[in-house]
Structures are given as C-alpha cells and as structure tokens.
Amino acid sequence: MSENKSNISWLNSFLIETGELAYFTGRFFKEVFRRPFEFKEFLKQCYNVGNKSLLLVGITGFIIGLVFTLQSRPKMMELGAESWIPSMVSISIIREIGPIITALICAGKIGSGIGAELGSMRVTEQIDAMEVSGTNPFKYLVVTRIMATTFMIPLLVIMGDVIALFGSFLIENIKGDVSFTLYFNEVFNSLEYSDFTPSTIKTFFFGFAIGLVGCYKGYYTKHGTAGVGVSANSAVVEASIVLFIIDFVAVLIADIFYSV
Amino acid sequence: MTSNINNKNAVIVIRDLHKRFGNNHVLDGFNMDLYEGETLVIMGKSGSGKSVMIKCLIGLESHDSGTINIMGMDMDKVNEIELDELRTEVGFLFQGSALYDSMTVRENLEFPLRRHTKKFGEIGDGTPLVMEALHNVGLEHTIDLMPEELSGGMKRRIALARTLILKPKIILYDEPTTGLDPITSKEIVVLMKSIQEKYKTSSIVITHDVDCARFISNRMILLVDGINYAEGTFSELDASEDPKVRAFFKS
How far is A121 from chain B, CA to nearest CA, in Å? Predict the structure, then answer.
C-alpha cells in the first residue's frame, strides 16, 4: 500500500515538473521575440559560456583524441587496418563522441553554474528586486542564458572535435610516423556531410537543453541556501539525462534521412 | 476608490485582502490606507503575513481576493506596461538588501535607470544621478566597490540609494533593520526619516523593531492572524490595555 502511494507521489511530482518545464519553455519562446532585446547581456553570457569553458573542453577533447587513438591502434594494426585509423577516429569523434562528451562537460560546468547563480539570486531576492525595478527578470536572466548556451555549445563542440583530431594525429605521428597532411587528408576524405550536418544540428538542441534545465532549476529554487545546492546538482543530472534522450532521438532521425 | 484623512489623499488603499498558502490563511480580510507623506508602520509576529502583504502590494505575490489600489490604479486591472510605470513610483527596500552581486555599486544603481528611459531619458552616463543617490546615503566613496566588499549596514544604505534613484513617491521597507547591530539600525532609521522629510515620500515600514517604530511612525497597524488587529499612533498602541498589543510592546 505504502509502495503504491510512493509510486503515485513520484509520478505526480514527475508530471508536475514536466508540466512546469513545458510552461517554462513556452514562456521562453514567448519572451525571446519580444522587445526589448537584452543584447549586451546576451553577449556577456556568450563570453561566460564560451570563453570560460574553452580550456576545459580543449583539454578534454585533446585527451579523448589521444586515448581513443592509443586504445584502438593495436587492434587496428592486428587487423592490418592501420591506415583506417584517421577515418575511424574522425567519424567517431565528429558523429558522436565529440558532441556528447562536450555537451556533458558543459552540462556539468555551465548547467550547474547557471542553476547555482540563478538559485542564489532567487533566495537572496535579487530576482524580485529586478522585477520591482521594472525589469523583466525572465527576459534578462533566462532568455539571454538559454540563447547563449544554444549558440555557444555548437562552437565549443566544433572546437573540441578539432582538438581531439589533433590529439589523435599526434599519436599517429609519434607511433606511426604519419604526416599532418596525410592524416588530415585521410580525415577529410572519409568525412561526408551526413557525418557533420546531423551531429552539428543536434548540438544546438544540446545547448538549448543545458541552458533551459539550468535556468529552470535556478529560477524556481526554493528552501534557501540549501536549495541552491539542490538546484545546481539537479540541473546537471537532469540536463545529462535530457542530452542522452536528445542524442537518441537525433540518431533515429538522422538514420531515417541518411540510411542507405 | 478614494479615501482621505486631514485633507490628505490615500495613495494606497487595501480592502478585504485574502491570501492563503494551502490551508494556511495568511491574510484574512486585511484593510489598510496609506496617506500622502505618511509613514505607516506595520508590526506583527513572524509569520503573521506582513511580508506577504507587502509583496502582494507590489505584485510579487498574487492575492486570492480583495482589492489593492495604488495611486488610483487597481492592481487587478493594470496591464504590464502600466505595472512597469507604477513600479517607478513605488520603491521597495528588501530585507536582505538584494544588491546584484555580479555588479558594482555604480552598476547596481544604474540598472533601474536604464530600464526606465521614458522617465529618465537615455542613460549614457548616469553618474550625476548615481552620485546624488549615493550622497543621500553618505556612501559616495563606494561607487566602484562590489557588494561583497560592503558591510551589512552599507549594503542596506546602498539598497536604499538604489530604491531612491527612481524618485519614487512611495517606499516600502521590508524589515529595514533586521540583522543589523543597534547602532547601525539607528543610523538606517535616521536615514529613512531624513529621506522621508527631504522627498516627502509616503512609506510603509514592516518591522519587529519597536524603537524603529517609535522613531519613524506617524501611524501603526498591528497585524495579528491576518487582520489589522489594532491601529493608531505609537503612543496609543503603547498605552493599550489589550493583552495581545501589550505582549507585543513588552517584547
């Protein structure tokens, strides 16, 4: 009996949260096209999201490229397919590993940051102060941040992909004496639009999801300072789950359009 | 809806205000008038609905029923643009100051100005207005500091400067002396009084601080169980024989 009650209560809160998130998303689309446009704040948020995540995304991408090539090289040599390494690595990174890993890192860094920042503004009444001064806090804080993540995450993903490929090239160069030109010729010969286009389009959705979940969690923070930690944490967890769902749906759709 | 006392017009009129959170009936038919140039102090125990009432007043909380009329405008009928314009006439000092902690003092003060270019014109360089507001609270030297570099009392004064910068006709103070030491509390109360005299603003002050109420109030309301339980000047309430009023003034 109590298990049933707990299941109903879990389902109830899940449905309420889904409804609230849908309303929040609807409000974003309503506000995004209305004047005044907070362009200065949008640029500031682009700087925060992009510039401040460059190093982390760069290091991670570089290590992924190194490790991926190091791990796959012995097996490929055993199969006599050493020359396929650039193609295999580039397709894997561009199609899947680069976008999802970069997005997960950004969910951790940017999503939690937005959740904590807006959460702390909520509990210290800064959002209320904005509202009573005649500023629309949703437009100023939420719309600008979601727009910034939507536009900056794809750029970060592309940068992460390039650095990962460079890391892979370094291993190939050190272990296999492959030149820069040869390696990247192989990479570009093997890549097609169907590898690049769907994976780039989905990164816009990744960025949107990270911003949306982070802002939603932060904007509706409750229970004082303890609630700020909960918001930051749940922003990361929920954004990560949403990223995998978007990834799955994107792969399904891409498969319909690009499968032979 | 209008009301007047001693030929003064009411700038805020609240009638039969109800607000409930679940089964908790926080406001249960609250009535209030605030007259031009008057400082009205609202006292009550924690959880008695004082802060909820003041937030309903400015539209930060919605009320369940009743009417709120500010300077002739019915708060249930104002549209978004009218509400924005009204908010330049009604300042709000938050309990925790609520300074934007990612902005300097200058940016904190310029922020509301930039939102109201209709009233103040384009703010290319807002410094004269900012300096005037800082001068009013005696903190000109803090203009380029971040909020984290200020003491609690300084934050409260900067928050007051930010409230004043829009030149409001009404100021709502939500527990302005809470969390401050007695000397700083006294400074804030004196500052509030001098601002009221200089700009002839009408004010509502929510407080637990009996000394603050004694010094600043023209009239007081004691809020108990969501209704205005007692009303009068400080000396009238202080002399009351009612046990609930006595208990409050003894504490």
Answer: 8
Residues in chain B, total:
251
Q: Please tell me the total count of domains within chain B.
A: 1
pLDDT (tens place) for every residue of chain B, 251 residues total: 445 555 568 899 999 999 998 888 889 899 999 999 899 999 988 888 888 999 999 888 899 999 999 998 999 888 888 888 888 889 999 988 899 999 999 999 988 887 776 666 655 565 788 888 898 888 889 999 999 999 988 999 999 999 988 889 999 999 888 888 888 888 889 989 988 888 889 999 998 888 888 899 999 999 988 888 899 999 998 888 888 888 877 65
Q: Do B60 and A132 touch (CB under 8 A)?
A: yes
Q: What is the nearest CA distance from B84 to chain A, expressed in angstroms?
A: 5
Residues B41 and B213: beta-carbon distance below 8 Å:
yes
Contact A134 B84 (CB under 8 A): yes
Give the long-range contacts of residues B46-53, CB within 8 A, separation 24 or more.
B46/B208, B48/B223, B48/B224, B48/B225, B48/B226, B49/B19, B49/B223, B49/B226, B50/B206, B50/B223, B51/B95, B51/B174, B51/B175, B51/B206, B52/B19, B52/B26, B52/B27, B53/B14, B53/B17, B53/B19, B53/B27, B53/B223
The residue in chain A having the minimum alpha-carbon distance to the alpha carbon of residue B172 is: A132
Q: What is the pLDDT of residue B97?
A: 87
Instruction: Report the chain A residue with the minimal C-alpha distance to residue B85.
Output: A134
Residues A65 and A160 sit within 8 Å (Cβ to Cβ): no
B186 close to B159: Cβ distance less than 8 angstroms:
no
Whether residue B95 and residue A125 make contact (CB cut-off 8 A), yes or no, is: yes
Please identify among residues 131-190 of chain B the ones whose CB lies closer than 8 Å to any CB of chain A: 162, 166
**Which residues in chain A touch residue B162, judged by CB atoms under 8 angstroms apart?**
133
> How confident is the model over A85-122, as pLDDT tens digits?
889 999 999 999 999 999 999 999 999 999 999 999 99
Domain containing B71 equals 4-250
Question: The domain spanning residue B61 has which CATH number?
Answer: 3.40.50.300
The interface residues of chain A toward chain B in range 123-152, judged by CB-CB distance below 8 A, are 124-126, 128-135
